[in-house]
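Minutes, methods subgroup
Present: GH (chair), OT, SY

1. OT presented the first of two proteins processed in the latest run. Sequence and structure tokens recorded below as shown on screen.
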Amino acid sequence: MEKKARAGWVDAARGIGILLIVLIHSIRPDMREANAACRLVYELIISFVNGMFFVLAGVTYRMAGGRREEAPGRFLMKKARALLLPFFGYALLVYAAFSFAAWFPPTARVFQGTEYGRMPLGEYLRLTLREDSPYAAHLWFIWVLFWITAAVYAADSLCKRWGLPRQRVLWAIALAGCVAGTLVGGGNSAAVRVLTHTVYFVYGTEFAVRPALPERSGMSSALAAVLSAGVMVRVVLYGVHTVTWYGAVLWQVVWLLVRLVFLRGLFQLAARLQNTAWLTYLGRESFWVYLLHQPFCCGFVGLVLYSKLGLPIPAACAAAIALGLTLPCCAVWLGRWASQRLWAQD
């Protein structure tokens, strides 16, 4: 019963998260430049939603505690199949699709002067692995998640071998990485993202240790989340400027705590919504919705409807959100149906 309850709120939280992801990816950069409300919504959600998915990844990692008993090679091979195979496969598919579209005369005019112009494969792969994919920037999450999971698994294994307190060691590594990432800078670098986002993953392992925490949280937790949301809005609107390196580090720690408090309140909401069937379904399929919704369903649709055809922002975003949710779910259903038919024939 406890395992089922845990899975329920985690799936609901993922469902909330994927809705927010599709929403912000429907808001194109030129929309944010033209409309202050679009910019506020985008910057507010982006400030916590990626961290939210790393927290949930940490929850599921710790829940599947038995997998840590596997040999390192076996564990990493499973993670590579689950994360890297879709990552590289989809990155190459996107490159092939947009390279052809940028070359094919009827569609080349649509892409002229946009972020989807032609690019050499080597440069595309270099940017995809080191920073952001030029055609599918959202793929960075999957790449960084693999390395964070591998690093936490290695730390877990060493703690077990040497008899060290696992959670304390993980927190020490995560906080040191967060400080190092702040000092190094270069926020779009994959290496810096590993340093700065490991702390969210480790925070998620704490939720797995205390699985009923979101359901037991009371009014004080909800009030703290509301106050944190107010601070986040204030920061997004007016920013925070520091003049010394230690001031920057101190602010990053405070900013991290604000977002973690807000996420705890968001998980409390997810626990209340864990019996909402459509939301938990989205949560269970969140990986594939995340992978497939960009750039074809959101970025490209927004480019055509808003940037090229001049549709109003609400109409363009609504179309992108609808396609970003329905088409990936349909693709997943069709793929599983075809797989079942093939297995049935064998």
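2. SY then presented the second protein from the same run.
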Amino acid sequence: MNPIAVIVLLAGGWVVAGISAASENGERPVRPDILVDDFERDSYAPWVAEGEAFGPGPAPGTLPRQMEVTGYHGRRLVNSYYGGDSTVGMLTSPPFTIERRYLAFLIGGGGYPEETYMELLVDGKSVRRATGPNTAPGGSEELDWAVWDVHEFEGRTAVLRIVDRRTGGWGHINVDYIFQTDRNPLEQLKPLETTVQSRYLLLPVAGEGPRTHCRILLGDRVLRYFDIQIAADDSDVRFWAAIDLRDYRGQTVRWEIRPRSARVLVEKRLRQSDAPVWPENLYREAYRPQFHFSPRVGWTNDPNGLVYYDGEYHLFFQHNPFGIQWGNMTWGHAVSRDLVHWEEIGDAILPDERGTIFSGSAVVDLDNTSGLGRPDQPPLCAFYTAAGGHSYQPCPFTQCIAYSLDHGRTWSKYPGNPVVDFIADENRDPKVFWHEASRCWIMVLYVRRDAFSIFSSPNLKEWTLESEAAFPTAHECPELFPLAVEGEPNEVHWILWTASGNHLIGRFDGRRFTAESDVLRSEWGKNCYAGQTWNNAPGGRRVFIGWMNSDGSAYPGMPFNQQMTVPRELTLRRTPQGLRLFARPIQELESLRAKSARFQGVALGNDSPSQSWPVGDLLDIRLAVQNRSAEQIILEVKGVRLSWSPVRGELECLDRRITDLPRDRPLHLRLLVDRTSLEIFALDGSYVMSFCWPFGPKPGQFTITARGGDAVIESLEIHELRSIWENITRQGEQEKPGG
């Protein structure tokens, strides 16, 4: 029987396919697939490009002014939107032999069979043609599978041609991952089901590439939902994301996956394991901070839920367990007994139908005012924003409670959530603490720019709006805490803080905050944001930690992204300018000293303008320099330069500048140098500069130079530090992803 050519509608796009009754007769063993092209390179060669539409090579995803392109495989694809819809062009493949029954590929873009299409030519004749799905305004840039049955051409030589002749709307074509196969991929696109046999489902995470949207359901109940960039092969794996489904062993879960084309990739790469799979050199990676906290894997940002209880400091943090970019916000969790050495104990609070889990705080409800504890066990109560705009069923942002009765190892969400309903915009980031004088709980909440709202509650579950605190420049992540003036224990003031570190000093009576200062700064560098302080810290200390927000360039190739600052103790002191906040690294960091060198009275001047010392990997440097007549004093630590101008009272580093240093005093500095960061504390912490920088695991030099006159190094201490991860062990048995 001769094959019959028919035109069918596939996923919204028109495909010319050959169908033959004879093709159903007989079966043969399924042979391995043959890749024709995946376009994972910078140029099209050996394909031949004509015109301008396809650009210089395969596109790295979405092009300028194009809607987001999804559904492609790997990192690159054919995309003829270079220059917009007005350009035209054509791509022609080298000849290849048809060796399998089907030719499958991903296709999207315009749906015009005579203007935007891919065709198969055999003996110079067009025998198959496919287009994208779009012909009307709107539409989608999602690629989907198309399949041609080419069994009658097996053994013959063919050429593929990708054509863009259209200059109007949807005048472009997207193509990717062309391969020959004996199995029709469309038959594999039925809903994916997985019987849970182990505690974890594992998926490999790539450093970049198209996003896949996944929901895992049991019946109609959504167990997990997340976006992920799945690594198509092992060479691109940053880490293996672990989905804990221990409560569903033996049950069959169903996946909902978008784009639909990613279903094959999910099934191909999905593994099961009874333990997470961590990087083999976990905590020893070249660009892993060695005395700053970073998560084992995934993205982190704001510190959350800082609370001390029963010998442990709890550090929760915004965490993406499925990628190294922001998204899937979850509360990660780590604990420490000394604020230096941290043990990550797994994600604590997971996204649900109310939304992903944005920032917040935690308290110990010692008197069980909430009724969520037991007589012998007060609850740890975490307050977080349910970010409804990021849910699988979008809804408003609200404030919710989760609580723990086992020292934070497991968490339950309060059935009466939300405890504060939607107010306005993206109201978020509840900071909760106990106010002893009023005998009630206080919540400070971001509701709109330049102001925070203050609520009170007798039981953590019912909240009353008390006032609004005006705060020019305020934006998200509020913090409100008391500090006594140093040396004056009865002179207590309150600090109202916003994400940037800007703050007000004032009074708080349990209902209303009254500012007594202008807006003050706490940070002069580039990379400190959304910091918070610990509730219940022993000895009444006020200890701060912040997110070292950056573009991620300090962590090349790492399985994680971003880090925290070192914990800093805050104090309030009187200065000639009035009350000011000071920040200095916690004393516990001194326990990391491995090797120290000290120097005094080192002259800098015309005879010896520079002094230099070899330094190691991890550093804590303390320095006091007295200027005598120098115009400029340059410090260089492992290639990063700090410049002090005593005459102008300026200190500059990495394009950031402090401009009001005292001109008649020695410069006292403390520098903390990790593999990926530099923190500078000037004048005992009255000024702080925080930077992310990829020093890496190499030694270097510390150099001081006086220019235009004399100076003297009054004192210099160089302490080389040990890693906080030296004795850390991975939690759980290590299995290979296929284990």
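Chair's summary of item 2: The helical segments are 263-269.
Next meeting: continue with the remaining queue.
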